[in-house]
Amino acid sequence: MRFEPVMFFAWVAALVPVLVFVAAVWWDRRQRRAMEKPPQSGKLLRPPGHSLSLRLDKAIDGIMFDLLIACALSAGFAGCAFDLAAAVSRNVSITSLLIRAAIAVPVAFACSFFAVRAFRRFHEAQNIRLGLRGEQAVAGALQEAAECGFRSFHDIPGDAEWNIDHVAVGTRGVFLVETKARRKRGSSKGQAAHEVIYDGNALQFPSYRDAKPIDQARRNAKWLSNYLSHKTGELVQVVPLVVLPGWFVTLSVRGSFAVRVMNTTFLPGYLQREVDKIEAAQVRRIIAALDEKCRDLEF
Description:
Layout: H1 5-35, E1 44-45, H2 50-89, H3 94-145, E2 151-157, E3 163-170, E4 173-179, E5 195-198, E6 203-204, E7 209-210, H4 212-232, E8 238-243, E9 248-251, E10 260-262, H5 267-273, H6 280-294, E11 295-297
Parallel strand pairs: 4-8, 5-9, 8-10
Antiparallel strand pairs: 1-11, 2-3, 3-4, 5-6, 6-7
């Protein structure tokens, strides 16, 4: 198989832009780290959906990388296909054709792989963005509850690779809020498309049943209660809540459930109707413990 200028220039045209882009990004980040300094050294509190924002950034970076590689391989495959067609027209040997095909086929598969992975990451980014918007909506609702003395913290890191979406603290209690943003996909079996039925154990959406949010809220509330009790030296009771932005929650049975479920519209009023349970001095100690836990974000 002799040297083919068409294939060579096709690969150069495909790879050079990608390599130039990667080198430029690397150089820019290196220069910024070396020359730029943040305007303040103090750390910031985590904003609503901070962990999801990091995941979304990672997913978008992955999409860009996969698309760049897919485009480069696509251009390279075009060169291989053009060279293979030219070889066929020249009646070259079967061996030479097989060698060219052996190069073109893996390139085509690799191009397809990166293109499919880019689409999957795009789909993942859509789900992450939905969750992020849900946490931002709940943070807005908690802001309304600040009028009656509640202080809110967001994206509280746990002791492993997990986090608590929100915690509202005031003299009326400590409330853990887990946000679950779900898309609406139509009604089913007489249940409205916007309705969630809660029986104290699981959430019945129109097309599926989900007990995980209830278990997660109960488990995280227990962990937070232990953490705050240890940090403050006082027993701290944590009330677990699950908030579903945009959904109408219906109770299948009446009762006092360990985990309350509601939407963002109901949340501020629920908190405002609670009566005082904690002394102001203990509230300040709880707030100090949560502030220490959540103030870990570099400027």
